[in-house]
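Translate structure to sequence.
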């Protein structure tokens, strides 16, 4: 049986059922909490306790919409033998306080989702956090105080974006990260500190960062010293700064300790004691936790078979919990022994839903071009019931962002394809994060050109390398990845079909009709709008739609605030006008990324069927 027609034990329904995404762990007293996003429950996000099980009942869902990206949406604390939770509720975006087994009680007003809240830190009788206010097309953000009684007080204003608020151990200082348009948090940010005087924030000053140096993840080492991540040396590495602004680099290596801060709540540094801090470093195919000795600047990696750790970990200095993954484990919640430097316990296993013999070989390759080496992660076709003699269908996957990257770990959606005989090339094109500032900056001014050129170069390389069947090459991507999909199929005839998930079709419309967080993103990727309006037009797939001849399947959520449905509708209409084979699916109630079981099942099954028809083979659902 030909690759692509292999019978797989993994159905789309199994993918949806097993596709509970897990994130945001926290140590709460002796307990461990995390969040599960459950497709079979309409994508509801449930706070789960290792000791108590589900902590919030339906219809509550712990998910804020700050930046329209969600992120860490709760804060727990032990309360004797009981507990308390502060969480943002998806439906109304109010903060709720749940005291033990009692019902959640709202402590912020009902503003019809005008006000959203994130980045909670505990104070006596309440929290400090980031508040975002979106009304009549205007967005404002502040650091605020929310008391358990419901009283709200503004602490800090003056910037368009805030992240990582932290109070010093002696309670005398507040630190935070801030930035302003047109910069994104991976372009340029600043680390601020200010005095806390009778609850008021006084005498703020910037101690690190600039418009060209994106700093992040500050944590207080002691009463006057902060450990944070700085990119002055070209890579996100650990640095140290005191309250007088005197700073120096702790670790200098060509490895990323940081991340593009798409969501509020990410963490890159944890303080263990006065002489040791913890972070994550290593290449994208071998990420590792490391303990840094601040005195001699030595690095001791924590032993593990995992090759990825999420920057959502939580530590109290003595214990560490994190989500980890490998080529045969999905996101798995583990506790790490910081003394023995190894995995202590698996809190929430997340094995493959089928035998490990079906796990593909995953490897990173580099493809040389005149300007850079393209980074590509290959997931090889694998099914123990069949042998891939010769060429396999190739599925090119393009990540979103575009400032982001993929890791060399098991992916549930990819497993659906590799067990059917597809090889997947997951492209970290020029401009992706994870490879230092120089590689990330390749996309500055070049989005809409370099990204699709890297895709086409990858396809040609894999054809020449006798990996891919040139008649059965497909491409898929969402959001910014969907934009690259559209440009790739317009500017080449290499693909049998494409799958566009809520992709960008027309750039000027995106520049004027997207949410605040990304509203100036394209200033660096293309140029300021409307000054560069002609360039926006030239880079837009819609401008060159007359060249489209490739069959296209399109998926879109009706409630997407980032890439509105109008973007996908434009290309649907092109397909209709030109008589191009296509399918268009609009999922009611879905936003930027699908979370409902029926959406996940439909998109997988229909894409497989569509690719089979375009590639002249008969896949088994």
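Result:
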């Amino acid at each position: 049986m030909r690759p692509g027609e292999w019978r797989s034990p993994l159905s789309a329904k199994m993918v949806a059922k097993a596709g509970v995404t897990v994130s945001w762990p926290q140590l709460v007293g002796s307990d461990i909490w995390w969040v599960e996003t459950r497709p079979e429950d309409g994508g509801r996000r449930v706070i789960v306790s290792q000791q108590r099980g589900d902590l919030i009942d339906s219809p509550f869902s712990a998910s804020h919409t700050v930046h329209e990206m969600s992120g860490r949406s709760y804060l727990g604390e032990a309360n004797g033998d009981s507990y308390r939770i502060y969480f943002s509720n998806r439906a109304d975006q109010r903060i709720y306080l749940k005291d033990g087994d009692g019902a959640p009680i709202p402590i912020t007003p009902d503003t019809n989702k005008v006000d959203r809240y994130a980045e909670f830190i505990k104070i006596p009788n309440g929290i400090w956090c980031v508040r975002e206010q979106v009304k009549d097309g205007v967005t404002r953000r502040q650091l605020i105080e929310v008391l358990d009684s419901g009283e709200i007080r503004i602490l800090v204003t003056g910037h368009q974006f805030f992240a990582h608020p932290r109070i010093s151990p002696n309670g005398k200082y507040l630190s935070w990260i801030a930035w302003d348009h047109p910069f994104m948090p991976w372009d340029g940010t600043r680390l601020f500190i200010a005095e806390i005087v009778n609850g008021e924030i006084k005498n703020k000053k910037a101690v690190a960062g600039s418009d060209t140096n994106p700093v992040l993840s500050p944590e207080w080492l002691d009463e006057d010293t902060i450990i944070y991540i700085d990119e002055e040396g070209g890579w996100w590495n650990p640095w140290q700064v005191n309250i007088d602004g005197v700073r120096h680099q702790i670790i200098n290596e060509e490895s990323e300790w940081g991340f593009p801060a798409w969501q509020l709540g990410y963490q890159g540094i944890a303080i263990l004691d006065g002489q040791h801090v913890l972070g994550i470093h290593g290449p994208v195919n071998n990420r590792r936790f490391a303990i840094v000795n601040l005195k001699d600047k030595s690095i001791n990696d924590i032993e593990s078979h995992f090759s990825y750790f999420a920057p959502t970990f939580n530590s109290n200095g003595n214990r560490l919990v994190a989500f980890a993954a490998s080529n045969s484990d999905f996101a798995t919640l583990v506790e790490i022994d910081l003394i023995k430097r190894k995995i202590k316990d698996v809190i929430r296993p997340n094995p493959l839903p089928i035998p490990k013999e079906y796990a593909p070989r995953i490897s990173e390759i580099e493809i040389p071009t005149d300007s850079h080496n393209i980074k590509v992660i290959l997931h090889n076709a694998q099914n123990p019931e069949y042998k891939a003699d010769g060429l396999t269908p190739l599925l090119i996957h393009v990540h979103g962002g575009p400032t982001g990257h993929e890791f060399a770990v098991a992916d549930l959606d990819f497993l659906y394809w590799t067990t059917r005989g597809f090889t997947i090339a997951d492209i970290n094109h020029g401009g992706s994060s994870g490879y230092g500032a120089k590689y990330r900056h390749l996309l500055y001014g070049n989005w809409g050109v370099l990204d699709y050129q890297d895709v086409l170069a990858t396809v040609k390389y894999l054809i020449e390398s006798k990996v891919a069947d040139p008649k059965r090459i497909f491409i898929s991507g969402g959001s910014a990845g969907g934009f690259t999909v559209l440009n790739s199929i317009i500017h080449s005839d290499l693909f049998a079909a494409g799958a566009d998930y809520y992709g960008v079709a027309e750039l000027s419309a995106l520049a004027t009709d997207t949410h605040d967080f990304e509203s100036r993103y394209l200033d660096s990727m293309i140029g300021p709008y409307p000054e560069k309006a002609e360039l926006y037009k030239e880079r837009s797939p819609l401008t060159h739609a007359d060249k489209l001849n490739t069959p296209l399947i399109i998926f879109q959520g009706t409630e997407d605030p980032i890439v509105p449905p109008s973007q996908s509708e434009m290309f649907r209409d092109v397909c209709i006008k030109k008589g191009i084979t296509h399918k268009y699916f609009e999922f009611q109630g879905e936003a930027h990324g699908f979370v409902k079981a029926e959406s996940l099942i439909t998109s997988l099954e229909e894409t497989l069927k569509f690719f089979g028809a375009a590639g002249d083979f008969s896949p088994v659902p």
